[in-house]
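Notes, Module 5: Reading structure tokens.

Key idea: the token line is not a picture. It is a compressed description, and you learn to read it the same way you learned to read a sequence, by spotting repeated patterns. We will look at two proteins. The first is printed below with its tokens.
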Amino acid sequence: MSNRIAVVTGGSRGIGRAIALTLSREGLEIVVASPEVERNEEVAAEIRAAGGAAATANLDVTSADAVKAIFTEVLKDKGRIDVLVNNAGIARDALAMRMKAADWDLVLNLNLAGAFRCAQQVLPGMMRNRWGRIVNIASVVGQAGSFGQANYVASKAGLIGLTKALAQEMASRNVTVNAVAPGYIETDMTKSLPEEIQRKYLAAVPMGRIGKPEDVAAAVKFLVSDDASYITGHILAVNGGMYM
């Protein structure tokens, strides 16, 4: 997979960081893209220190203009984008009847519309090159639902639907579009949950342990590889058996 260019949104921490580091070890040149400029640089520096190639992008996926500008710049600088990992995401949890309209709008805009905006920027080049990989980071809750997360669940279920639609549109051009649906993974987002909720989630995992960001990154590594060239429109669950 060497010499291929991969953009990882939300690549500054957690699952995104693990994906960026893992793909760089496979020889891909990584663009670490998130609004966390300093953290982006830290991840890129880590990649370079290990002998890899990395650039950074100050990317806010909620802004159509920003997305267009950043991807235009990357394409101009690198010549092409071979791999897109749509990992950027946030949660703003509340019971549906109390959920603020602004929190609904933000989560759908960032998690779902943001992924669409980024995909739209890379599809023409991938079609021309007749090779491409898009991996959307969904969630177990997009498959199973979750109490108090109507906005997050809707965004991740929407991402699964988007994955299948794009997969059908792009299949004839040798461009695959898949999703990874992580379960309970050790990240900043899950660490901030109340202990009682963390215990409840852990009890729902048959494997009896919390997943690591590297577990998700390994699934992404497979889906962007040539070994996965006949897999598209697939949702790969990385959840320790939490939902089957």
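Here is the second protein, with the sequence above and the tokens below, as before.
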Amino acid sequence: MKVLSLFDGMSCGQIALNRLGIEYDTYYASEIDKWAIQVAKANYPNMIHIGDVTKIQASDFGDEKIDLIMAGSPCQGFSFAGKQLNFEDPRSKLFFEFVDIMNYYKPKYFLLENVRMKQEYQDIISDYLGVQPIKINSALVSAQNRNRLYWTNIPNISQPLDKDIVLKDVLEDDESIDFTNYFDMMKPIVSKSNRIGIIGKGGQGDRIYTTNKKSVTLMAVSGGNGANTGLYLTNEETVRKLMPTECERLQNLPDDYTKGVSNSQRYKMIGNGWTVDVIAHILRGI
């Protein structure tokens, strides 16, 4: 099987394929972020990076047929958390690069992931792809609330079974963590309630989350929610943000998958990535 992953990031789709034991001969990846490419290549040295999605040529693949195309096109122009610029946003226009490549290579299977969006935008995407999306919350397979839409022609996709994972299931023991290289990791609890737990930057200021529930959605921007989410300390007076390894677990990544780059880049690419077990659940239908 030949796989083409557009906007591949750190290659979460490849992790899902390997987790399922789905064999593939070649894995082509289109990505421009040098740090994500570095992490992906460190974990999968045989993958073939082909650069910018806007510059893909038929000759890049010779006479090979592409069996599976996966993509998580940039979502900032669609997101309810963004400016809602829809298809006029240059990042959202990259969706049409995905459509053009799909129409040219006509893969047996395709998968497109994106954020929840206005119904009118969703309908446009559905019309182009000929399928309706399924909405899956990563909370079913992770300790993270992350609602996403998935358009695919892979058959018989249903909701994953709820694994009942909560935040405390992915946390490190504070006593085992070396905080030396983490500036401003500790923060005072600012909530007026007596709850001790997670702190994350929200639209209305700091919010406290208990560790027996789910985390907020990891964000794609370094320094955003993905970097600032935290957990309670035993002295019950301060909170700390999640460590990179804990964020990896929220996305079902192997521990230390993103090591080798700065922590800010780790947080960014993890927030940009897919929840691996959701992708594996969908790909299981192949």
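Summary for the second protein:
- Confidence is low (pLDDT under 50) at residues 80-85, 186-208, 222-235.
- The helical segments are 12-20, 34-43, 94-105, 119-129, 225-228, 244-250, 263-272, 276-283.
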